[in-house]
Each structure stands twice: as C-alpha cells, then as structure tokens.
Design brief:
With 309 residues, the protein is an alpha/beta fold. The protein is built from ten helices and twelve strands. Strands 6-7-8-3-9-10-12-11 form an eight-stranded mixed beta sheet, with helices on both faces. The radius of gyration is 20 Å and the shape is globular. The structure holds adenosine-5'-diphosphate, iron/sulfur cluster and magnesium ion. Adenosine-5'-diphosphate binds next to β1, β2 and α1.
C-alpha cells in the first residue's frame, strides 16, 4: 500500500459567486521513504495543492478527487480525525512559517514539549543541541523567545520542530526561501536524514534547483494548476527535460540564464480549452490551441503534458 495516493485532485476557489480552478487533476503516489519535489512559478497552485492534502484550505475552497493516506480517504475525515492525522501522520512547514512558533515559550521549551514523549530529559537536551547545530544555530537560541529571533531563524526552527514530531510525511512549502547556503544545507540535512535513514516521506515545494538536486526522488513542474512534467530529479533538471514550459522555467532562474518567459500565465477563467501554455509557447500550433494535452509517458517514470515534446 502506498503512503499517499492522490488522484484526480482539483481545487477551486469561490469568489463573488464565481468558481476559479487553481489546481487540476493532480495524480501523485508516494511510498514510505520517497521524496517528491514540486517547482513552478508563483500562482501555479503549489501551496493550494499542499494545503488541500492537510485539509487547511480557506473557507472559500472546494476540493474534488481522492486523497488516500495509509489507505484512508482524508476528504471524508471530520475535523477531529484530520487533527489526529496532522503532526504525527503529516507534518507541515507552511510557506510563512515564522509566525507558527509559540510566542510565549522559549525555543528550548518548545522542543522539549515535542521530544518528551520519546526521550528523557538528558537525551532531549542532547537532541535539541544537535538539531540546533544542524540548523546552523548556536545553543543559546534554546533560551530565547521567538520575538528575539529573525524571521529566517524562526523558519528554520519550525522545520526542526516539525521534524521532531517524526511524521510519516512532511510537506514543506518553500522552507529554504531567502536562507543563506549554510542554513539551507542544515535544513536539507534534516530532511535527507529523515528520508534516507528513517524511511520517512517528503513533499518539498521549492524554487531552488540546488534544493531539488540535493533530494533523492522525483520532481514535478507545475504550471497554471497542472503538473506539466515529472520524472526523476536528474532527468527533469538535465538534458532529457522536454516540456517547453520546464525548459523556459529553468532558463528563467537566476542560477541558470535568468531569461524570463515572455508573456503571462493564462487567466484562471481561461483554462478550459487548449494547452494552458499555448499563449507563451513558441512551438504552439492549431492543435495546441484547440486540444488539452494529457500527461503521457516519454520513457520509464518520465511524463510530459505536451503534444510536441
Ligand atoms: N483564498 C483564496 N481565494 C481566491 N483565490 C486564491 C486564494 N488563495 C490563493 N488563491 C489563488 O490561487 C492561485 C494559486 O495560489 P497558490 O497556491 O498560493 O500558488 P503558489 O503557491 O504556486 O504561488 C493563485 O492564482 C492565487 O491568487
Ligand atoms: S502542447 Fe503545444 S503549446 Fe503546449 S507546451 Fe506543448 S507545444 Fe507548447
Ligand atoms: Mg505558495
């Protein structure tokens, strides 16, 4: 049995009586010890997808499809059952994670609260020291309150806290954004150890190709609410990557050529016909404008949503 099995997942937002589709027909399975990285430009629906898995979308959201976690259908869970899944089943590092720490408790106390179920006092203190080291932080941080720390440090600490809960799956939404190389590596070491040593699973949303390249697993590229290409990380980041959007997205990143894709993403209400990238794609033809491409297998474990790739 797969740890996570998502099929036909759609997310809509209802605004002023109109329905806006933001995530469309996502298919994703994840086994224990597997890692899936999602990348794509802002507004492509990455956070909406992550939040739909945890049942924490805003009130105006509607979700369709199926999300099975350990074989159980999360979309049929009530609020109490969903709360039981969050934390030890699925841990979440939100996009704006720095406000998620308890403002009235010292950092060390917050870690001890999480660790006290599995470790005694001395072991817990050692574990906190090691986690702080991994995060590139000094021991003295344990004595501080969140308001005494920078946003970046608070974000890093939340990653450490979520990892301490030891969930079977962590969903991390851009946890390394804005961090220096040293801090980034600390966070990645925590994630990597969880995946390779403890057999835990990870869904990581990131714009950072170094982060994607570090993690073992598959990479999915999202555009206008859809996954347009996915496959093993080295394939999608390497010479075999073939979707015109993926090629343009990779070229647009500062660590590559820094050349933006011309034009702008199709509007939320204009996504019903044709390929969603057609208005920006130099290879678009009449078929692309008329028909919607489905994901097709290019080779073993490498899929692409394009008629001509
Ligand atoms: N509560 C909301 N109501 C209406 N639209 C929303 C809401 N939250 C996000 N959106 C829209 O949904 C789309 C996807 O947003 P998001 O998932 O945050 O994208 P990403 O994480 O890829 O940047 C965007 O067009 C965004 O404006
Ligand atoms: S289907 Fe056509 S428009 Fe869409 S990405 Fe492929 S070539 Fe471009
Ligand atoms: Mg986001």
């Amino acid at each position: 049995m797969k740890l996570l099995d998502v099929s036909g997942l759609q997310v809509f937002f209802e605004v002023g009586g109109q329905i806006f589709p933001v995530v469309d027909k996502i298919e994703l399975t994840l086994s224990e010890g597997e890692c899936f990285v999602i990348a794509g430009e802002s507004g492509s629906g990455k956070s909406a997808f992550a939040m739909s898995l945890l049942g924490i979308l805003p009130q105006n959201a509607r979700v369709r499809g199926a999300i099975l976690f350990k074989g159980k259908s999360l979309l049929e869970f009530d609020a109490k059952s969903m709360r039981a899944v969050r934390g030890s089943g699925i841990g979440y590092v939100p996009q704006s994670s720095s406000t998620s720490l308890n403002p009235v408790l010292r950092i060390g106390t917050q870690f001890h609260h999480v660790l006290r179920h599995s470790l005694n006092g001395a072991e817990s203190s050692k574990a906190v020291t090691r986690i702080l080291q991994d995060l590139g932080l000094d021991d003295s941080v344990a004595l501080m309150y969140p308001h005494q720390l920078s946003e970046g440090i608070k974000g890093r600490l939340l990653v450490g806290l979520v990892a301490c809960l030891d969930p079977m799956l962590i969903i991390a939404d851009e946890p390394t954004k804005g961090l220096d190389t040293h801090s980034k590596e600390g966070i990645l070491r925590i994630f990597e150890r969880r995946v390779t040593q403890r057999g835990r699973s990870l869904i990581m949303i990131t714009h950072d190709l170094d982060v994607a390249a570090w993690l073992p697993g598959r990479l999915g590229i999202m555009y206008a609410g859809e996954i347009v290409e996915w496959g093993p990380v080295p394939v999608v980041l390497g010479d075999d990557c073939c979707h015109p959007y993926t090629l343009g997205f990779l070229r647009s990143l500062p660590e590559r050529d820094f050349i933006p894709i011309p034009g702008s993403c199709v509007g939320l209400l204009e996504r019903h016909t044709g390929c969603r990238f057609a208005n920006r794609c130099s290879r678009a033809d009449a078929v692309c404008k008329r028909q919607h491409p489905e994901l097709r297998r290019v080779c073993e474990d490498h899929w692409v949503r394009c008629f001509h790739a």
